[in-house]
Amino acid sequence: MMKKLIPNKQIVLNHYVTGYPKESDFGLRSSTTSCTLSHGSTSSAVLLKNLYLSCDPYMRHRMSDHISHSCTIVQSFTSGSVLVGYGVSKVIESTYPSFKEGDFVWGMIGWEEYTLITTPDSLNKINFTDVPLSYYAGILGMPGIAAYAGFHKICYPKEGDCVYVSSASGGVGQLVGQFAKLMGCYVVGSASTKEKVDLLKHKMGFDEAFNYKEEHDLGSALRRYFPQGIDIYFDNVGGHMLDEVILHMKVHGRIALCGMISQYNIEKPEGVHNMFSLIMKRIEMKGFVENDFGHVYPELVELCIKYLQEGKLVYVEDIAQGLENAPSALVGIFYGRNVGKQVVCIAKE
Amino acid sequence: MMKKLIPNKQIVLNHYVTGYPKESDFGLRSSTTSCTLSHGSTSSAVLLKNLYLSCDPYMRHRMSDHISHSCTIVQSFTSGSVLVGYGVSKVIESTYPSFKEGDFVWGMIGWEEYTLITTPDSLNKINFTDVPLSYYAGILGMPGIAAYAGFHKICYPKEGDCVYVSSASGGVGQLVGQFAKLMGCYVVGSASTKEKVDLLKHKMGFDEAFNYKEEHDLGSALRRYFPQGIDIYFDNVGGHMLDEVILHMKVHGRIALCGMISQYNIEKPEGVHNMFSLIMKRIEMKGFVENDFGHVYPELVELCIKYLQEGKLVYVEDIAQGLENAPSALVGIFYGRNVGKQVVCIAKE
User: Fold this and answer.
1) Among B31, B84, B184, B230, which is most buried by a count of CB atoms within 10 Å?
2) Does ipTM come in above 0.90?
3) Which of B74, B276, B277, B293 to mutate to test the interface with A (most CBs of A within 10 A)?
4) B263 touches chain A (CB under 8 A)
5) Burial level of A32, CB count in 10 A (0-12/13-18/19+)?
6) Do B278 and A257 touch (CB under 8 A)?
7) What tens digit of pLDDT does each residue of B281-301 get?
């Protein structure tokens, strides 16, 4: 049995958050992690050196002291404790047979330099390293599963479908649009700046894109890009946008509810008033979480790596440098400051 | 060629309706119907003597001069013209090979004593007459298809599911609850009077029922009857009820949107605020209309007639007598005055 004490910088939640999160809601703590890996014991553990942290909108819920709409899928962070989220790490010590020193893994880790994982079967081994390791916090990680499963398993897409994606340049949206293009769909995305709109049109291959902040009348914008209506809406924002899009759906349209980032920082969610159109147009609206779709991961990896190598798929990341800059990166996604998938690099291999 | 002039009393829409419909929105007109049935010509027609009219909530939309949320499934009535709706009739003359004098049919007819149908393939022949003919305006007509398809094809029910039905004693709701009981589900319905609640519990076999008007806190009522949550919500009312029910759904629950009668007479529909729960609970919400499910009609008829004969299914009707009382019956359904499926008998065979 070895006894270790490792100096470990950590990002902690100073207190529960109301409204938009601020950098001051988080703190940087110089701590020491005591870890004991008992080789040969029945309990297995893995000690990780963390490399990349993923900044994801769902983390906002965990910053509240009670998560509204009772659900079992996410729990509040503990105030005063280290944040937890998806990330990419290197195994530096292991008593778990499936992982050995030097392996790379992705999964739920602490926002800290080192994490001791006592339930290592929750980690995913990274077998292919000819792509940036950070991709395992994005296209080849949770956001990739959300995009792939949400589009292919929830939306029933077919060639020629008219697809609308909101928050389209984000970690999930940019993939949904590209998956849709690869299927021969007509794809339009919306985002919050000209830079992102340009990315969508010129780098990610969307047919059209628009800056929703410049549209005084969202309905006109949707009519302009979808004169015949929308077959598939991949919703990352919720609220008023969702309400308006319903009016522009085609008969038998499908709406995948992936996230509602426009609603996370407001006290009372906006009401969706156009529900009756769901009946008249026989629309299917389905909420989903990527946790239910772990089984699609192998096909996602195979497909994405093939397309990445062939240059048919791109993935745009916004990489902040240094653990001390992680709170600012996380806060930034709620203001749309990130251009592409927001990750934080806290160490090179 | 015969030329006929038939005295024909008709119910007309006096003017388009705002808010709740009133009896004065409708008029009784003594008219004469001129009909010419050309035997041997290429065009076929059927002259019907109308027996039963069905009063259905969706008709409210047709009373408005513009139907909000552009859709192709229903059109506005023509102001000053005769109302149209589902009904049961007897063929008194026919140049259409499939129907002969004396046949009974159901389908879209005028709110009048006699209707000349020039597109007779839209009518359904009634082959089984050992049940009240009025059933073809209810359990064996459109409401039956809505209940059967909506429950079995939209909700994916399975034995033991916890099922909630709103507007549960109406023409559709009472069937949904009984179909669910026949599958071995736990079924709770809500209605607007004690009389209806008693019917649900003691005649229609619901496990539980409650008067939503007597519940100050809908959430408490739902928690009382569904301590573990709801698997299936069959929504006939929309609005605030739908918003509240979402909070009480189980993970992977299903919501069939059949109608939203609470919203039809108000200017701006109530907002549904709890949409984010659809994601956290991975809920599928699907709008449907019975028009898409004509193909289930044969199995519906076979099943219902069998269960009716075996006494395993009941169908409660509220039958108004006389065409002149049709407007009052129609208006009444928007105030919940009907007890059971509202039909109007305008003639015996």
Assistant:
1) B230
2) yes
3) B276
4) yes
5) exposed
6) yes
7) 999 999 999 999 999 999 999
